[in-house]
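Regression check, fe (ii) ion case 181:
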Amino acid sequence: MATKQKTLQDAFYETLKDVYYAEKQSVRALKKSAKAAEHDELRQAFETHAEESANQVERLQQVFEIIGKPARAKTCEAMQGLTSEMEEDLEDFEDSPAADAVLAACAQAVEHYEIARYGTLKTWASQLGYADAAKLLDETLQEEKKTDQLLSEIAERINVEGSETDAEEGTTKGKGGRKAT
Ligand SMILES: [Fe+2]
Ligand SMILES: [Fe+2]
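Current build output:
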């Protein structure tokens, strides 16, 4: 006997469970990143987004309610990979001048994953006729995009400040030295 064909509805529910897990994990990662960040703006961005993300977890619970399914988390291997890379980088770059740049980069990898997932979920919700769910998912999607953009801007400043320090050291130590621009 042929097994029952899975539908877009199933894909939606499975992906929702994946993102539910990922989102909870991102709250923990953001809190940890906020503690580790040296740069004020970066720390503030992490703290703000940790709060937003806790709210995003609640939005997901509302989406489960809308589709009439229990809110369950399913291990998201992708987010596990991203957060364990972050842990590794945190150890490797701890107390180094590049630590904040590395933290911001790890956080952006997480945001990009979320943007991909929420984009898909929003589209599927619309296609399946869950207009209210699509609206909730879009609110989260916009927050993820905004956070990614903010992290890009902060990262550019962090990186410039980091390389300026290097350049200054180079010119003061060097005989005559290169002219810092
Ligand atoms: Fe999120
Ligand atoms: Fe996020």
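Comparison notes: Confidence is low (pLDDT under 50) at residues 169-181. The two ends are 73 Å apart (CA to CA). No diff flagged against the previous build.
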